[in-house]
Amino acid sequence: MFRGQALPLKLVSSFHRTWRKDLLTWIEHDVNALFGAVMERISYPLRLGDLGHNSAIWSILQHHGYPTPLLDWTLSPFVAAYFAFQDLEFSEEVSPRIHIFDQAEWNKRYGLRAFIADPSPPQLVVMESYAIGNPRSGPQQALSIVTNIADVEAFVREREEADGQNYLTVCDLPANDKPRIIRELELMGITYGSLFPGLDGICRDMRDRNFTRPI
């Protein structure tokens, strides 16, 4: 599984970047408060408390900008490359980054069916959510890591050292390759519009087509 980032930053969930890092409060207050608004906009009857339904609800919140303990990943290295380069502003000092995580090896040792919000023990669980109410999930070949750990990369490196096993690989790419890479991804059908279906995606694709300077 792959994750693209425009900057070579640590792996930290949007929730753990905030000042509110109490997951129990997040689940009991935030998710419950947002649940009604989510349910108004989807046809499938999701239920809080069901593991699969919980992951679908969390994924919807994540994909629409609400801080969650999820980290977005994809099964496609090409989708990851798009996210690494899409909003990159050229700078020789910045390298877009792709993380490669060995899901199969991690799950052999640490795979779990459930995620516990309590801060102990530390957990990192790979989660494939139902695409209910989330039309972006399929095109992005999306899956997530859910965690109660702020510094995911440090946690994985500790496990690598203890297990004598490599789980996470980091690839930094040259920023000045952006025009060529974005063009090649467009030829593969990987654009903002294909990954974000809807009016926003259509307008963004047309903007990029008509206002991006020729290579």
TrEMBL record:
InterPro entries: FRG-dom (IPR014966). It holds the Pfam family FRG. It comes from the Bacteria. Residues 2-95 form the FRG domain. This is FRG domain-containing protein. The lineage of its organism: Bacteria, Pseudomonadati, Pseudomonadota, Alphaproteobacteria, Sphingomonadales.
